[in-house]
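Researcher: Structure for this, please.
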Amino acid sequence: MAHHVEKIRRVFRWGKILLPLKKLQYYPPKFIIRDPVYQGVKRAFKEGHEVAIIVFNIQNLRQVYEQLGEHYYQQFVVALKVQFQRTILNNIPQQDVITLHDYYSDGLTLFIKVGHDRNSVSEIEALMLNVLEESNKNLNIEFPMAKPDFVSGYMFIEKKHYSIQEAVYKAHQQALAMAEKRVQSEFNDMLYTVSKIVSQRNIYLLAQPIIDVATKEVKAWEMLTRGPKGTFLESPLRLFSVARQTGMLYDLERIVLEKTLEQIHTTGCSQDVFINFTPLTLGNQRFIKDVRKLMEKYKNIPPRQITIEITERDSIEGIEYFIYNIKILRNLGFRVAVDDTGAGYASLNTISSIMPDIIKIDRSVIQDIDKNSVKESMLKGLLLVANETGSLVVAEGIESEEEALVLSRNQVHLAQGYYFAKPDTLKKGLASS
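Model: Predicted structure, token format:
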């Protein structure tokens, strides 16, 4: 049996696919694809991107082989890779794909460039779902006898690692563990680590000021989460991706709320404070009860000082308590903001559903807006949406004076970004400025 399983794996590993390509290229098993992977990762890091590894594994590889037989199985492998390639390129900009191949596993591994913010986590999960649904649907038409049982997981490659090769290997093993959730695997280690972070409340918060564009005065703060200093999970991308895949996301975001209230109390900050929450957390049945309990503890902090910022590009459809909880939060006095407006369908759909108090315009709209008239037209369109909903507008990711000037002439009053100030700790001196 072991001989047959290894034979299956050799067959599966016969084809190596590099994306993007105009056509598929196959190489014999002796061809090692390590260099294109590592070179692509290095290049992405140099360009300022993060790199995510997404694993699509077939749990029942032996059964699929037995169902099809060797001849049809080889055709199935080719069709599988072609279908994955087609689906991936339909869902991701071609320039963001580094490579797709069978990186030492019973399936396919995708390397892609992603942004630095937490939104990348929900985008990756949506991508995984789309790829699996579309590929399974089309494969079932071609090979109705085959019933591959796919599992998927992802991880971000650590930039600070001393070796790109070691960093890629480590991230791939972690992504595999997330996909398979194996007993006594690295999945359990990651679950233990995140549980420990939550139980010890071992996170720290940075505060990025939200600025009045005309006066340059600080009007509010957005709280940003970091994991334990000097660890693999200090990066918010890795911290929230692991928390999400291990079922600890709600607990982590509850700790963020608690520590934010602590800092407001300690510093005496009287300005508005934005706190990020995923739709999954906002739609949790426990959320309102936990919020009430924390606000009872910090009676000196009025709910109107806190803006609940709906972050990440998850769809709110199907989240049972989401709309109900938002209504309760508003009745309690909290304000609601929608993040990433202009970045995709999910944020626009959320706006129409909840009519937010604040709309935050995504960095993708703002970047180089002074050089792109289409982007300025997009900004004007979003301002019309904000006017229709009665929402205040905050522009995110301002990095130059020229971008700030475009905001001024379009009467966008509030903005945040490195041009104004980098994130820092919420201090007494800053809070009273």
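Researcher: Any notable elements?
Model: The CA atoms of residues 9 and 106 lie 7 Å apart. The longest strand covers residues 50-58.
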